[in-house]
DNA sequence: ATCCCGGTGT
DNA sequence: ACACCCGGAT
């Protein structure tokens, strides 16, 4: 089996393992209702129904006015937005998304773009590998799907840079399918509102995933608004440390409030790497210097040395950027953005 | 479990 | 300083 196929199979296996809804019959995994428990599931569905009404009204009045929340946004535009939003605040994404979609309105356009232009347009959004994967994704969509983003979970998941969250978000927001979108915000809100406990972070637990499916509105059209609204509530009101419960449309029924908010803000935060002095910082400096250069011009190694005191670290970072395809090595040790 | 990035809020 | 941000790949 060639590596490419192996990768897709691994991703697919992870996908079905995560989505009990899809795999329950074949793999005999427990359904969300079974995980939550039959009677508990009925209670949650009832509770979710009243929450949905309150949330819809809140959403209508409080949703942020973001450019991709527009009838004319294509599925591809939704995907670009979701990829840019991975680990990046929405407010910072807005100008980048506007410029990006103006320059490359569809997958076919991005597929043909110069790598250097793609990296430059990604600017300071962070995690520049996301930009390369988005272009690889565009190339596959253009070549394999006639420039139309597939509306199938497994096919989306097989594309570069698309994981469970992004695949689900595209299905829900772009195609209106009934899919539970699960990110840190939604996990926090649902866990608080319906279970009365904090979502502790780390990887998504089976219970959290089951909960998201159980409280998801049955009607597909309502499920998309639900996903958006729960996420928005988590971003604006039901924040991690200082939730604005006075403004919350769910405060009357919130299990977390009823329980006295035990362990508010407690979060076994996934051990994130520090930034100062790490390879990440050095890589960022190198990319920043390269983006500032005119197209095709090289960054001299001696100039790169000014960016990092540790010679071994500098070499390591240059090598890793080369491995990632973010830079090209010229004349042995000088650098430039890839063609 | 670890790495990747940069801006913002506290 | 520190956690957080609509995660993904390894």
From TrEMBL:
It comes from Bifidobacterium canis. GO terms for biological process: base-excision repair; mismatch repair. InterPro entries: DNA_glycosylase, Endonuclease3_FeS-loop_motif, HhH-GPD_domain, HhH_base_excis_C, HhH_motif, MIG/MutY. Its cofactor is [4Fe-4S] cluster. Belongs to the Nth/MutY family. Its EC number is 3.2.2.31. The lineage of its organism: Bacteria, Bacillati, Actinomycetota, Actinomycetes, Bifidobacteriales. SUPFAM superfamilies: DNA-glycosylase. It is an enzyme of class 3 (hydrolase). Keywords: DNA damage, DNA repair, Glycosidase, Hydrolase, Iron, Iron-sulfur, Metal-binding. It catalyses: Hydrolyzes free adenine bases from 7,8-dihydro-8-oxoguanine:adenine mismatched double-stranded DNA, leaving an apurinic site. It comes from the Bacteria. The keyword Protease does not apply. This is Adenine DNA glycosylase. One of its GO terms (molecular function) is 4 iron, 4 sulfur cluster binding. Residues 84-236 form the HhH-GPD domain. Coiled coil: none annotated.
């Amino acid at each position: 089996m060639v590596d490419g196929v192996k990768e897709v199979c691994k991703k697919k296996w992870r996908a079905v393992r995560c989505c009990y809804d899809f795999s329950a019959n074949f793999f005999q995994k427990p359904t969300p209702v079974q995980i939550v428990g039959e009677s508990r599931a009925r209670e949650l569905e009832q509770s979710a129904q009243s929450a949905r009404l309150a949330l819809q009204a809140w959403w209508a009045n409080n949703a942020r006015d973001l450019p991709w929340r527009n009838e004319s946004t294509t599925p591809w535009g939704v995907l670009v937005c979701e990829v840019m939003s991975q680990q990046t605040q929405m407010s910072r994404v807005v100008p980048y998304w506007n410029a990006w979609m103006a320059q490359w309105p569809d997958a076919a356009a991005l597929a043909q773009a110069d790598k250097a232009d793609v990296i430059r347009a990604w600017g300071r959004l962070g995690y520049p590998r996301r930009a390369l994967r988005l272009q690889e994704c565009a190339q596959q969509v253009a070549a394999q799907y006639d420039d139309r983003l597939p509306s199938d979970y497994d096919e989306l998941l097989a594309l570069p840079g698309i994981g469970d969250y992004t695949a689900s978000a595209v299905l829900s927001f772009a195609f209106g399918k009934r899919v539970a979108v699960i990110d840190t915000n939604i996990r926090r809100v649902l866990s608080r509102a319906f279970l009365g406990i904090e979502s502790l972070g780390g990887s998504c637990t089976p219970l959290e995933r089951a909960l998201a499916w159980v409280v998801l509105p049955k009607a597909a059209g309502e499920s998309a608004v639900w996903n958006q609204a729960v996420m928005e509530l988590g971003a604006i009101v039901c924040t991690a440390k200082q939730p604005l419960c006075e403004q919350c449309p769910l405060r009357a029924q919130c299990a977390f409030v009823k329980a006295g908010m035990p362990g508010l803000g407690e979060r076994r935060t996934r051990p994130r790497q520090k930034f100062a002095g790490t390879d990440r910082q050095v890589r960022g400096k190198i990319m920043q210097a390269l983006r500032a250069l005119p197209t095709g011009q090289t960054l001299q190694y001696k100039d790169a040395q000014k960016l990092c005191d540790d010679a071994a670290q500098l070499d390591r970072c240059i090598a890793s950027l080369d491995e990632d395809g973010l830079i090209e090595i010229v004349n042995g040790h000088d650098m430039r953005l890839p063609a």
